[in-house]
Write a structure and sequence with these properties.
about 400 residues, alpha+beta, Helix Hairpins, Single alpha-helices involved in coiled-coils or other helix-helix interfaces, Heat Shock Protein 90, 3 domains, 10 helices, 5 strands, about 75% helix, about 10% strand, disordered N terminus, disordered C terminus
Length: about 400
């Protein structure tokens, strides 16, 4: 009876788990649809807002012009009224009609200007709300996906290794969260970069098709702009690919890749990056190289965002026993006590916590030293050519 009870209990738990996963999957699809609809609404609103802003500028110019003309007509009417003996009846009538017509036209234009400004303000408010809703939806999709990652695992295995899972649960959540943030970043980069550019390519292609039979010079101009747009799109795509996996790691190795990245970082930010190598006697495994590069990449990203530095230095030392990496900057630094809030916050993404977790996964040591006004120093020490690496 005990065995039967345990079997039924297991079946019931699996049934509950299956129904839970099914419900979450359906909810994820609905949230995704809401997110896409909201995104489309934002794009339409942005386009409409651009049109309204253009119309508003035109109306403002027209109102200013009418105000000037109306003021001149009133002066003319006043002059005619004052010196009516010097003007014919027809001149007086024309001056009056012109002043009256301009006054009416000005009233109408001012009303149009007021209405379109109200319309623009209302559209801006709705656009802001839609952007906030879109951010909430994207965050919710990320949270739902994380839940599904766990629930779709082997339920029996989770039960058998429950004690071990408790110890590694936080690490698992952090890793999945980092993956989700990376996926969101890539999706956002593609949407804001190549996707938008390709939409413009389609639009400019249509314009060029129409222009060829109307005005060849304008068509050639559009095609020239189209060529430039395609080049920019290709550049954006290559950057996204590089961020996902720099090919130079396989072709050139870790140090040349870091040097090249430092040069590009200097061009982009103006922060000078010095890369020094003390010794490089041992070949590193590919996943170690990638992890070290990611830590360098995230460190420089933090320097760009927060440090207000003018210089950064990267020191690399590799031998048969270990790899040592030191990254320093001359920025404003921070109080070490503030690190606790980063460690307690799962939403901090692949920042300082992410770097520390990478070091732990590779059996290494990660440390940070910083103080106000004295910059920040990051130290990473990894074992090199471990026994388990031989099975790579």
């Amino acid at each position: 009876m005990v065995i039967l009870k345990e079997t039924l209990t297991g079946q019931k738990m699996n049934e509950i788990l299956y129904k839970t996963i099914e419900a979450i999957e359906n909810s994820k699809k609905e949230i995704f649809q809401i997110s896409e609809n909201t995104r489309n609404e934002c794009e339409k609103s942005n386009y409409k807002l651009s049109e309204i802003n253009s119309k508003t500028k035109v109306l403002i110019k027209e109102v200013d012009k009418l105000e000037l003309e109306e003021m001149k007509s009133r002066k003319k009417l006043a002059d005619v009224s004052k010196n009516f003996k010097d003007y014919s009846e027809e001149d007086i009538k024309r001056a009056y009609e012109k002043a009256n017509n301009l006054r009416v036209e000005l009233i109408i234009k001012r009303k149009e200007e007021k209405d379109i400004i109200l319309q623009r303000n209302d559209l801006e408010r709705r656009l802001k709300v839609n952007h906030e809703n879109l951010e909430r939806a994207e965050k919710l999709i990320s949270q739902v996906r994380i839940a599904l990652e766990y629930l779709n695992g082997d339920f029996d295995e989770i039960i058998e290794t429950f004690d071990e899972l408790n110890k590694k649960q936080l690490l698992g959540i952090k890793v999945i969260k980092a993956q989700e943030n990376e996926r969101q970043r890539v999706a956002r980069d593609i949407h804001d970069g190549p996707a938008q550019s390709l939409a413009n390519v389609v639009l400019k292609t249509q314009i060029s098709e129409k222009m060829i039979s109307i005005d060849k010079n304008k068509a050639l101009k559009e095609l020239k702009e189209l060529k430039s747009l395609v080049r920019e799109s290709l550049k954006d795509i290559r950057k996204i690919i590089y961020d996902l996996r720099p090919m130079s790691l396989d072709d050139l190795g870790l140090v040349p890749t870091i040097r090249r990245y430092g040069e590009e970082f200097h061009k982009e930010t103006g922060i000078e990056v010095n890369v020094d190598v003390l010794e490089l006697e041992s070949k590193m495994n590919s996943y170690v190289q990638l992890s070290v590069f990611r830590i360098v990449q995230e460190s420089l990203n933090n320097i760009k965002k927060h440090a207000e530095a003018t210089q950064a230095s990267i020191l690399i030392q590799v031998n048969e026993a270990r790899l040592k990496l030191i990254i320093k900057d001359d920025g404003k630094g921070f109080e070490m006590d503030t690190l606790k809030k980063y460690n307690d916050d799962i939403d901090c993404g692949f920042g300082l916590m992410g770097m520390e977790e990478r070091a732990k996964l590779l059996g290494g040591i990660f440390g940070i030293k910083s103080s106000i006004g004295k910059g920040t120093k990051i130290v990473l020490i990894l074992p090199n050519n471990r026994k388990d690496d031989l099975n790579e």
